């Protein structure tokens, strides 16, 4: 079951690890005009 976000609504806050394994939360960028997310699947 997936939770969907409605179009034109605020994204829920979440935390993911960056490329150096440091946690980064979406809320760290609150108030900035643009945030680009790149979600990359690893190849094995």
Lay out the secondary structure.
Blueprint: E1 15-17, E2 23-25
Antiparallel strand pairs: 1-2
Describe the fold and architecture.
There is one protein chain. The chain has 44 residues and is mostly beta strands. It is built from no helices and two strands. The protein has strands spanning 15-17, 23-25. The mean pLDDT is 83.
Provide a brief overview of the structure:
With 44 residues, the chain is mainly beta. Helix content is 0%, strand content 14%.
Q: Give the overall shape, derived from the CA principal axes.
A: extended
**Low-confidence segments, ≥5 residues, pLDDT <50?**
none
Strand order of the largest sheet: 1-2
Strand coverage percent = 5-15%
Defining key terms:
44 residues, two-stranded antiparallel sheet, 14% strand, extended
